[in-house]
């Protein structure tokens, strides 16, 4: 299995900031001006926000899989700027852009630490339709998660020294992730069964490592619009780029 940085006491104290490693935002000229694209009706009886699937790259895309504007975010579940983006963007991105069928939104994990990887595995336990909601709620609960981690530092340190499924089980306990997901319909037994499938974590970590290198993803959140790396952005700087790409 791919090795990750050990979540030491020093790491847990600075995790939310150090894990992000964000660069300056790319200038708002990297997306070419395109003609406005038409609204695409969803399948009968559904909304586009109810449509989700796993991509070949290991991310989870929400919305019209054939949308003319494809937004990809590389994000970490332990990253403050990712949480800030989610808080600002989740509602308008979904209601104004994803629901129109003009924009699809794919989340891909950039893994920074064992907590991040454990959450990424658990967020997939209920299938792709639940993944984005779990991610958003996890970012909204980040302060509570870090408080739990601070309380359980010794247990977290011991967990990160373990191997295989025992490591993820210990991290989930120490970070309060079993309780978090149980409150959202994923029982402890279901969560443990997910974490026991080590190949899932291995593939997520491998995807993160390979794609970060190949696509020059140096921090989180990093965004791509129709294949163009537009760097780290806030919602205030990213929305005009979507509009320039035709989502208007």
UniProtKB/TrEMBL annotation:
Gene3D superfamilies: 1.10.40.110, Glutaredoxin (3.40.30.10). Transmembrane segments: none annotated. Coiled coil: none annotated. The keyword Hydrolase does not apply. Residues 1-18 form the signal peptide. The lineage of its organism: Bacteria, Pseudomonadati, Pseudomonadota, Alphaproteobacteria, Sphingomonadales. Keywords: Signal. Residues 57-242 form the Thioredoxin-like fold domain. This is Thioredoxin domain-containing protein.
